[in-house]
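User: structure tokens for this one?
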Amino acid sequence: MLQQPTRFTDTQLSAWDDLITRAAKGSIQALTDMSGQDIQSNLVQPYKIDVVEIPNSLGGADKVAVGVLLGIEQIPSFHIALIHSPQTAFQVVDILMGSEIGTTVGLGEMEISALGEMGNIMSGYFLNIIGDETGYELKPTPPSVRMDMTGAILDYAIASLMMETDEVTMIEASYGTAEAKVDGVFAVMPSPELQGLIIDSWGVK
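Assistant:
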């Protein structure tokens, strides 16, 4: 059975947790800058989770959601996901496009493009912060936007992670605006490959 690599010290793992926490906070700030709205967030500290349980931690595998999924070009097993209920996704589009809440009632080409751009900007900030820290130039993949059951949205991400490990350290943040009552989840699913490359680059013992 595959397992999470155990060659890292507590000091190294603590530094890794701190890095992805700062990067996630930067991504939420990027959403504020993009939307022009006061985005409030609640960041969950990094935690270990069985790969197969990730969909359940994001609302349930059978729950219908709108997901924006991105990765890293150089590391296919790394994934970032933005998960919203359909109604919340419509409200997010209204905020991004400066429309009155309730205007968007479905996902057409323009709405999908807006959500994809949101994913691009948030993942770009996340990877830039990691790149500034480590010297790696990490490029996000084009975003995939779809409305489906959460388990189906994350199917590829789960399959690619399971080729490396049974368990990952994940970080997530819920966010929204007080006015619109928008609530979404920004989830980062780092692969052991990326974790190893970054920790090794630090030389931290």
